Amino acid sequence: MILIIGGSGFLGYYLHQSLRKLEEKVISTYNKTMIDEENFYELDVRKVNDVSKFLIKYKPRILIYAVGITDVDLCERDKKLAKAINVEGIKNIIEHIRDTGSKIIYFSTSFVFDGTKKFYLETDEPNPISYYGESKLQGEKIVQESGLPYAIIRTDQPYGWKKDWHHTNSVIRVLEKLQGDKTYNEIIDWYNTPTLVDDIINATKKLLNNNNGIFHIVGTDFMNRVRLAEIVANVFELNKKNIKIINSSKLKLSAKRPNVKLKSIKDQKINNRMSSLHEGLKKMKENMEEGFKFKNKKMNHGVDRKKGN
């Protein structure tokens, strides 16, 4: 059995939908957002007794931890909440499956690094500059010290179509902003590697039964947010002149953002091809009808679906 903790989230939900096509049974958990589908169960990772009863009942062969507080500024403002989910949550899980031999797959982030190097490999020493990054690094260490087989997946800026209850992502946010004829602010000094959610899922599948350790799973393009928005506008035929360039210092945010470029020395080991942003956006556009089920119909403003690519 494969158990996904956090199956209501953006990554967890689509991972559940993909893995359930395998021969092995897949179950997932949700907390605040009820998923009224087969094999979804309510679980709060902060409630130790509930976690214990749940894991005793289901005894997963593979446990995927896809839950977490990913709002960087919220983590900085409410460190107690961030620690409860990103640190104590995975600790509660580990303590109750330590004797089962279950494999752990733990999703982490580029924010475990400080951004002072040109790029970071799996072997580089983490040094987070935000509490979000610190909390995810603490979670990584708990997994590494568990004595269980594990795969830690560090990724950056997952994007793709989403369900109504999911938080927005970098691409959807640009599409929403460019719908009308108004300008919107985009940040030029934040750099990320946008990563198609389908590619993360494909990589995760290859890590289910083999390959332990830390893996950097990201797209092929490292770019600032303005360039990302321009490429989105080009692919979806929207007006990029409405993008107004600003510096992040104007936002006065709680947490610092490192500009981290992840690279991998293990990508050949799992033979997983990652998409460029342009390739990923073309795949999204080809699946436009599926995407429209997730988003407001107004998204087709400026897009000629008959043109395809």
Question: What this model shows, in words?
Answer:
This protein has 309 residues and is α/β, with parallel strands linked by helices. It has a domain at 2-165 and 195-220 and 259-275: Rossmann fold (3-Layer(aba) Sandwich), CATH 3.40.50.720. Helix content is 36%, strand content 16%. It has eleven helices and 13 strands. It has helices at residues 10-19, 48-58, 72-77, 79-97, 131-144, 170-177, 197-206, 225-235, 267-270, 277-286, 288-294, and strands at 2-5, 26-30, 40-42, 62-65, 103-109, 150-155, 158-159, 184-187, 191-192, 195-196, 213-216, 223-224, 243-246. Strands 3-2-1-4-5-6-11 form a seven-stranded parallel β-sheet, with helices on both faces. Residues 292-309 have low confidence and may be disordered.
**How would the global form be characterised?**
globular
Total beta-strand segments = 13
Tell me the series of helices and strands, N- to C-terminal: EHEEHEHHEHEEHEEEHEEHEHHH
- What would CATH call the class of the domain at 2-165 and 195-220 and 259-275? Alpha Beta
Radius of gyration: 19 Å
The CATH topology of the domain at 2-165 and 195-220 and 259-275 is what?
Answer: Rossmann fold
Low-confidence segments: 292-309
How large is the count of helical segments? 11
Task: Determine the CATH superfamily of the domain at 2-165 and 195-220 and 259-275.
Answer: NAD(P)-binding Rossmann-like Domain
Q: Approximately what portion of the residues adopt beta-strand conformation?
A: 15-25%
Described by strand count, sense and barrel closure, the largest sheet is: 7 strands, parallel
The percentage helix is: 25-40%
CATH architecture classification of the domain at 2-165 and 195-220 and 259-275: 3-Layer(aba) Sandwich
Mean pLDDT: 91
Which class best fits the helix and strand makeup? alpha/beta
Strand order of the largest sheet: 3-2-1-4-5-6-11
Q: What is the chains' assembly state?
A: single chain
N-C termini distance: 39 Å
